[in-house]
Alpha/beta hydrolase
Amino acid sequence: MHRKIALVASAIAGSAAAVALLHYWGRLRQTPELTEESRLSGIRGRWVQAGPYRMFARTAIPTDATATNGFAACPPVILVHGLVVSSRYMEPLALALARWFPVFAPDLPGFGESALCGRWLDLPGLADALHLWLVATGLRPAVLVGNSFGCQILTELAARHPGDVKALVLQGPTADRRARHLSVQIWRALVNGRRERPHSPAAPGRIDYAKAGLLRALATMRIMIRDRIENRLPLVRAPVLVVCGSRDPVSPREWAIEVTARLRCAQLVIIDGGTHTLNYVYPQSLALAIRQFVDALPGEPSGRMEQP
């Protein structure tokens, strides 16, 4: 009798927990595209029809007229988000870079605010969607910055649409070919999360996972694991900056060195103490590395204007 009561109580508790989780998940899905804090910091939203996709992007551009004129000769910097998340967690880096460059961070179709109903895109599909967005916005060729899975998308873009790319920044590129197992990647991500506390991007990440949905998340993880980015790296013609955090367990130093060696024209910067999500946790250090890289590109003016 007591056992039956216990089983019934457990079933009721489990059902209540599931209902609470679904309610919480639904609330996350209703999170607005921009928070008031983001708007006050200078982040703006922009919708663009890119081929069949209606895509949302965050922008960070100084509103001062004199400052805006100073950006005329600067290449646009495009930030490409990582696995399942969106441009939401790119905001700290966008604000740091906007001292020197006009910055744009799109949500790829199926992620963040760029809804994609009923299906998901493979890696070539995501790269082609980014290409369509670059064409629609007139921002190509651009300096493109990717974090984690975003690096896989960017190398696919560079191979398929080289005219879109002025230069690439690959920060924490995935997936380390010596650790292409989902269980290993999940463990590394958990270790990284502990190292990034208390400034971890877990809170915006939960919003983005809720918006993407479980099936899309699992499908994208499968794409990440199956992709062989190392075979595509020699096809990239543009200059590349590879950036690695010295404490990044997801994309460790040894893998970053190999990625750099496989590229035609690349340099490696290791940020001491950095973890995997440099764009969120160490945005100033990453922004400075990007600025120095862009300043050294052929034809780029040195001594860019500092914002006060």
